């Protein structure tokens, strides 16, 4: 299988919610595997914080999460700052660009602001050329300054060297689907993107049918494989409002949104997220989906696995899961997995430890079996 060049290659997070420190390598398909409450969502939210802070402002991103205190790690001792550092690759007509971007946010020692950006840095390399900026306590190295509760990257994006990384980070899309919101009528305004909770799924399916009919058919094919008897899911329009309807082999008239089962609707939402127009139009740099297997029959996980791997050929895909059934496939690569556990209130994230990898490579047990037996551990965990 030919994989897309991954947007993110490395993510380091410190003092963010339950995460004390982690250093996670990224590839085209990343599976964050662990039990409920281990901290998988906290890691995803750290990435989402970056996208939110650049799309709006750091203040808005902090407020959306209940304030800085709600973000900062409190166990085993309170912290006063958090940091997020990313390494990335961007494909451009002039060749690949590589670099790093990160920042540190924390309490204002002067107590004048709810928080401050203590530091921010970005380095972009292309061939032998390197462009960078460094900001320390609101002062830009080399001259100039910025408000201490703001990020400099949106300003620097006006310069060509930083434009792609700015839009790449803003192009990370995050989905934790809510079937009730997916059933609701939404404005029929085509944006090419499905909402974080699955909003606008009807509009997205309609846009796919119009602009990308081949991929609309792929979604229907996957849905047929996941839910026997289903023919496909389509947009249902009432005036300027939009929702979904379900076609089946047994019934001439399609089912409306309230008659669609939770599992079927959730599966359709995952598929729509993986193949939404923003992905097909190369506007999305990364798609993160939490618990794609929710309400899915174990026998249907094979088709969902195939959809995830196919989508990762076009865009970097990150999922969280606690489903051993999703792992029980011959083509599942243990290298995709990042094990997430929690010990003494602190989240640990890493590759499968050497013992677990050896068991899988020698075919003594599958990843799913190790997970069912609670024998998967991240490398480096005590």
Automatic annotation (TrEMBL):
- Protein name per Swiss-Prot or TrEMBL: Chromosome segregation protein SMC
Which PANTHER family does its entry note?
ATP-DEPENDENT ENDONUCLEASE, OLD FAMILY-RELATED (PTHR32182:SF22), DNA REPLICATION AND REPAIR PROTEIN RECF (PTHR32182)
From what superkingdom does this record's organism come? Answer: Bacteria
What is an example of a GO molecular function annotated in this UniProt entry? Answer: ATP binding
Task: Please give the organism.
Answer: Sinosporangium siamense
Q: Keyword Transit peptide on this protein?
A: no
Keyword terms: DNA damage, SOS response
Domain ATPase AAA-type core: where? 29-78, 225-328
Which SUPFAM superfamilies does the entry link to? P-loop containing nucleoside triphosphate hydrolases
Q: Which GO terms describe its biological process?
A: DNA synthesis involved in DNA repair; double-strand break repair; SOS response
Q: Does the keyword Glycoprotein apply?
A: no
């Amino acid at each position: 299988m030919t994989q897309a060049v991954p947007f993110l290659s490395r993510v380091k997070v410190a003092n963010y919610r339950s995460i004390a420190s982690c250093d996670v390598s990224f590839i085209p398909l990343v599976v964050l595997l662990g039990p409920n409450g281990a901290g998988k969502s906290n890691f995803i939210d750290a990435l989402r914080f970056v996208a939110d802070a650049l799309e709006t402002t750091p203040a808005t991103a902090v407020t959306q999460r209940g304030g800085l205190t709600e973000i900062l790690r409190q166990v085993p001792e309170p912290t006063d700052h958090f940091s997020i550092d990313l390494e990335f690759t961007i494909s451009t007509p002039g060749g690949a660009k590589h670099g790093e971007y990160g920042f540190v946010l924390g309490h204002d020692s002067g107590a004048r602001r709810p928080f401050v950006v203590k530091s921010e840095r970005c380095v972009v390399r292309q061939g032998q050329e390197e462009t960078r900026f460094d900001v320390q306590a609101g002062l830009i190295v080399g001259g100039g300054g910025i408000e201490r509760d703001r990020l400099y990257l949106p300003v620097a994006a006006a310069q060509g060297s930083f434009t792609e990384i700015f839009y790449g980070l803003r192009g990370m899309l995050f989905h934790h689907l809510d079937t009730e919101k997916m059933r609701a009528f939404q404005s029929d305004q085509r944006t090419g993107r499905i909402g974080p909770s699955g909003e606008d799924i009807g509009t997205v399916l309609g846009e796919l049918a119009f602009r990308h009919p081949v991929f609309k058919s792929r979604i229907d094919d996957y849905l047929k494989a996941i839910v026997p008897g289903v023919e496909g899911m389509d947009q249902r329009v009432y005036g300027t409002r939009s929702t979904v309807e379900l076609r089946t082999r047994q019934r001439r008239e399609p089912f409306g949104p309230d008659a669609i089962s939770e599992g079927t609707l959730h599966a359709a939402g995952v598929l729509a997220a993986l193949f939404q127009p923003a992905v097909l139009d190369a506007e999305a740099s990364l798609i993160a989906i939490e618990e794609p297997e929710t309400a899915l029959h174990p026998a249907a996980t094979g088709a969902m696995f195939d959809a995830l791997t196919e989508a990762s050929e076009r865009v970097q895909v990150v999922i969280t899961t606690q489903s051993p059934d999703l792992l029980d496939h011959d083509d599942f690569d243990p290298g995709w997995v990042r094990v997430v556990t929690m010990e003494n209130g602190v989240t640990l994230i890493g590759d499968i430890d050497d013992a677990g990898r050896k068991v899988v490579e020698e075919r003594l047990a599958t990843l799913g079996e190790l997970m069912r037996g609670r024998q998967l551990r991240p490398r480096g965990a005590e």
